[in-house]
Every structure is written in C-alpha cells, then in structure tokens.
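ok so dumb question maybe but i'm new to this and my supervisor (M.) told me to 'just get the structure for Cytochrome c, class III family protein' and walked off. so i did the thing. is this what she meant?? sequence i used:
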Amino acid sequence: MDRKTLVLMLTEALLIVVLVVVIALDFNKAPAEKHVAASHDAVHEEAAQDAAVEEKTEVAEAPAAKEVAKAEIKEEAPEAEEVAEKEEVKKEVAEKAEKAAPAAAGKTEVADVIAMDNPTYAKHKKTIVQFTHKKHIEEYKLSCGECHHDEKAEPLKDLKMGDAVQGCIACHDKPGKAPKEVKDKAEKLTYHTNALHKNCIDCHKAHNKKNNTKAAPASCGQCHVKKK
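this is what came out, is it supposed to look like this??
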C-alpha cells in the first residue's frame, strides 16, 4: 500500500469519527432542550396557579371587607347622631338663656317677687318657687353678691340693685338635676337645679343654724308649695 492510499483511508476514518461525534452531540442536546422547555412550562403553570389562588382569595376577602366597613359605619352613625343631638340641645339652651338673661349694660328692673320659671325647662315637675327678692334685700339684709357670683364662685361685691346681671342658666346651663351617676361636685353644679338648690338651701341651713331657728325653708315642700 502506497502512502497516498494510506492518507486517504485515514482521512475517511477521521471524517467518520467526526460525523459520529456530531450525531451523538445532537442526540444528547435534544433531550436537554426538551427538559429546559418543560421546566419553563412548569414554572409558568405554577405562577398561573398562584395567581389564580390569589385572585380567589381577594374575591373571598372582598365581602368580608365590605361587612367590616358596614359595621364601622353602623358604629359611627349613632355616635354622630348623639353628638349632633347634644349640640342641638346646647344651642337651644343657649338661645333660651340669651332670651332669659337681662341686658349686659344699663339698669334692670327687678320685681319684688320673682317666679323661678326658667324657659329652658320644657316642663316643671314641682310648683314654681316664688323668690321674694325685695324681702331678701331689705328685710333679710342680704347683699347682691351673696347670690350673684362670678365664674370662680366669688361674690360680686360691687353689684347693686338694678345692675345688669346674667341669669343662673347662663353658666349652669344644663337644665334639671344632675343624674345619680354624676359624682363630681363641680360637674353637678353645671346642672341648673343643683346650682340653685345649693345656693338657696345652703344659705337657709346656715341661717337656721346660726339663729337657732327653722324659719328659712330648707325642704322641697317649703319652697315648692303645693297648689291648693
């Protein structure tokens, strides 16, 4: 065999080997690509499932959120109504107090006997007290400041008969008597009835004790005289 023939045979053998290697590589590459594609498909499918679950969860939670919102609205509504009602009452009391209070300046005509019939009360449970204003000043020698005081409960010492003063309801602006659950003394005096009773009854009791008498009325029936 000459050299030329040998080279030709070796070349053919080499080509065959290369061809076999290429075929083998292609054969191995195809399953790998299929595996990668399958992996991608699996990932996409899992993501789609997660999205579907999340969407279902949101849909399921939506009615619950609506119910919570409705409940909150229901809870807030009575509170708003209560606040509005209180504001309306305050406004009404203020308007009535303004009408009841005398002028802020100038002289005021003072009746000898004053009917304690305050317009802020829708209805009186007892008879109206007839306060003998003139008798308290002239006969009992009380000064104006013993009943009329400032916001700190200090007597208005310079007040004279006929001077303009505010009615009690201007400061003690809650009509009626304080509820039983109100224990604070200062808060009780914001109620008109409590303020009047304390002002009058405390003074009457002190007078009776000092003079060893029972002349000054200190019980309900003595002031709120029943009609005959």
